[in-house]
Amino acid sequence: MKKVDIIIIGAGPVGLFTVFEAGLLGLNCLLIDNLDKPGGQCAELYPDKPIYDIPGVPFQTGQEHVDALMEQIKPFKYELYLNERVDSLNEINEDNDNYWKVTTNENNQFISKNIFIAAGAGSFEPRRPPNIDEPDKFIDNGVSYAVRSIEKYDNKNVMIFGGGDSALDWTVELSKNAKSVTLIHRRDAFRGAQHTEKMMRELVKKNKIKLLTPYLIDSIKGNKKVEGVTLKNFETNEIESHEADELIFLFGLNKKLGPILEWGIDLNGKKISVNTENFQTSKPGIFAIGDINDYPGKLDLILSGFHETTLAVQEAYKRIYPGERVPFGYTTSNSKLHKKLGVKE
Ligand SMILES: Cc1cc2nc3c(=O)[nH]c(=O)nc-3n(C[C@H](O)[C@H](O)[C@H](O)COP(=O)(O)OP(=O)(O)OC[C@H]3O[C@@H](n4cnc5c(N)ncnc54)[C@H](O)[C@@H]3O)c2cc1C
Question: What is the value of pTM for the model shown?
């Protein structure tokens, strides 16, 4: 089982900055996030919105902020596991020492003396199609909630469901390599960017793709593999049958605290209570930083999370090297960091 200095649950801004602060102390990290990209809320909920309260940075969009954090942690050793949710957290004894073991929904297991829960408001989970029993039984056999590889759709009959940016973007993109693309939405109005909607409607005019509105999925056809769907037409109430190889449901994401509630850590409502000296939870070695934690005066702001994790990594270091002085220093005079960055001193 892979052993690292710090396991970080959640690769939002606070999880990412943890890699930097840990790196300054020579600690290595492993980040796990349920999403298909790093950046948490900034990347998922407001990539194009400007943030004005990052100290020293007058203006940065959500995505620019994430890109800058990714650049900032480049000099340090870390691994990033995406599309994986941490489901369980258990205490184990190895080499006569206590460790925490995390297990993901992909059955990956990692151990560490320090777990940093930087899970924001919980893991982002795709919304399932309404009225369909167990759509997940077709996952990897014709049902997906995100596009992970474009090639998967080469020469396939693809149906995309949804009315937001993702549905429009992927309809336009997959029209280039799929055998056919049909976009299905419950009304003939879209919430996504106007220019992408325009591109989509141009493709409809040129018969490159098909648009079906106002329709809703009624059932998925097939046993082990998707063979098609039945759709309900809202205007006529008629049920129509269509063949398809791949169904992509892009109905947005729900935030779910989910497994974290079951880890036996002291909570205050849906947040994790912490000690503000080091942001440790009720369990030694488990820290909670960023939006997920709670203490008197807590503000759900990025800069609060940055402060919290800076103090938490100090405690993490002490847990790995008991009795040793934490090598605190300013980055302006940190020669190890300067060497990594190629800065001449
Ligand atoms: C529209 C909007 C505008 C905002 N504007 C500002 C602003 O101007 N300034 C500001 O400071 N803040 C702003 N915020 C708040 C800011 O985005 C949050 O404070 C910040 O994102 C918190 O960072 P985080 O790393 O704690 O959590 P998040 O960004 O929420 O990231 C948590 C990550 O953990 C993952 N995760 C959760 N559980 C698990 C699990 N079990 N396994 C694997 N992964 C898991 C999630 O998928 C997510 O990616 C704004 C928020 C919104 C929604």
Answer: 0.80
